[in-house]
Please model this.
Amino acid sequence: MDLSRPISAVAPSLEGEVLQVLAGTTMGMTGRQIALLTGRKSHSGVLDALHRLAEQGLVDRVELNRAFLFALNREHLAAGAVLELAGLRTELLARLRAEIEEWEIAPIHASLFGSAARGDGDPHSDIDLFVVRPVAILDEDPRWRAQLDGLAAMIERWTGNRASVSDVAETEIPRLSADRPPIVEALVSEAVHLTGLPVASLLGEQ
Model:
C-alpha cells in the first residue's frame, strides 16, 4: 500500500489522487492548486477528474471570478468512505500502538521511521520500525522474537508492505547516541512515536 496516498489501494485512478488531496482540507481549492498537491505537472487532467467527481455530487464546485473552487462534499453518502480510506495511515499507527501495548515484554521504546513516517513512500516501500529491547531480555528470547515476528507479519497483512524491524538492545543506545549513525539522524528528524520513552529522552537529548 502507498501510505502517502492510501486511497490508491482501492482508487488508483486520478480521481483517487484528487480525493486524497480534498480529504485533507475543508478549504476550496482551484484545479491548479490540487494538481500541484497531487504532483501532476499539468492540471488539465486533474480538472477533468474534478468535474467528473462534481457530476457525481462527491465534490462541490463553486464558480468564482471565472474559475472554479473545489471541495469534498462531506455530506455525500460516499464521503465517509473517502475520508476513511484517505486516513489509513492514521489507522496503521493506531493498530501498531494497540498491538505493542499488548506485548508480554514491553519495549523501552518503539517508533516508526523512514518513508512511512515521512509519508513519501510507495507500494514497494518497507515499513520501518525501531524497537529497543529491555536490558534484561536477550536477543534470542523466544517471547521477544515471537512479538517482533508477529508484528511484522501483521503489518504485511494490514498493508501489503514488508516490515523492517530494527531491534536494538537498551545497552546499545549510549553508543548509538555517541556515534550518530544514519538511523539515529532519521529517528531524530522523522520518527513517529509509538510507545515508551520519546526519542529525545531515549538518546539523552533532553
Summary: Strands lie at 59-64, 67-72, 109-113, 127-133, 163-169, 192-196. The radius of gyration is 21 Å. Residues 88-202 form a domain with the Beta Polymerase; domain 2 fold (CATH 3.30.460.10). Residues 30 and 65 are 11 Å apart (CA to CA).
